[in-house]
Amino acid sequence: MAGALIAFTAGPYAVAPQTAAVAHADPKPSTKELRSKALKLADQLEQLTEQYNGLKVKLSQSQRAADVATENAERQEKSLEAIRQKVGSLAATSYMQGGSDPTVSFVASQDPQAVLDQAATLHYFAKQDSTQVLGLMRAMQSAQRARKSAEGRAKQVKDLRSQLDSQRKKVTGTYSKVRGTLVDRDPTQLANLPVVGTGKAAQALRLAMGKRGRPYVWGASGPSTFDCSGLTMWAYKQVGINLPHYTGSQWNAGTHVSRGQLQPGDLVFFYSDLHHMGMYVGNGMMLHAPHTGDVVKIASMSGRPFAGGVRVA
Asked: Which parts of the chain are coiled coil (predicted)?
């Protein structure tokens, strides 16, 4: 603004105010800068994912501890209630019998020994139950404290996991946007970006990406050569999912998804007879084994009639 005022007051040949106020847009980041940012985000996402997985394990352990502590407290409470009822019954009997002088009861009784035996028995059980009640109360209090502590730990871990999951989703969204911008500018960059995610679909795609450059061979299913359904079958087999070596059967091996719902690792099919397929990578691109004389590579899905997508995992 100061520059504009100087120019305006400098003389008759000064720049007009309206043209001097035009702002210049910030330069767009270069392809190299975008790729660097994408790689940093992917690395950050991997760290967050591992932290999330660690908290999942801790939460499972805390919840198990809370369940065990709760069961223990419930057992102690049931035992205490049984003793409570027994002591109450003994107390009532003692009170009823204590209404007269024990000596009179002894003399008036037809069976004095029975009175002595009953009195001694009542005294014995009352004494024993009193000791047991105290022990059970202590055990119950200890069990309840353990239960509250375990439940508190479980809640704390659950809250942390929720916060971490929110952060992970935010970074994933940012990564997807940066990757999309980069691939729109230079589609070849997609091959150099990591496949993010811990699900089996992402794992299978990550493994399949390692087979880029391997030759297409009809009927082959790896580990060195592949045809289109052989590549997807091999990749998913490595993560514990068995797919048949036939596009038509793989079409029925999972949940059908639309083109707009595709996620990395989903199977994509082409032509009405489903004679070609690949694995979705992202941004309208797929990994596939094209045909004889070609190699496993990333290619655009455009140019082939899209039949549908299948989510296996």
From this structure: 31-86
Tokens representing 111? 């069976």
Catalytic-role residue among 24, 245, 256, 276: 276
- Integer Cα distance of 259 and 252 in angstroms: 17
Domain-embedded: residue 285: yes
Question: CA triplet 92, 97, 98: central angle to 5 degrees?
Answer: 95
289: domain CATH number?
3.90.1720.10
* pLDDT on residue 11: 41
On the 0-12 / 13-18 / 19+ scale of CB atoms within 10 A, 242 is exposed
Query: Residue 16's pLDDT is what?
Result: 42
Distances (CA, A) of 270 to 43, 201, 307: 34, 20, 5
Same domain (yes/no): 168, 54: yes
256 is catalytic: no
pLDDT of residue 39: 76
Write out the residue range of the structural domain in which residue 212 sits.
Answer: 197-311
Q: What is the pLDDT of residue 193?
A: 77
Q: Within the chain, which residues score under 50 in pLDDT?
A: 1-22, 99-104, 106-107
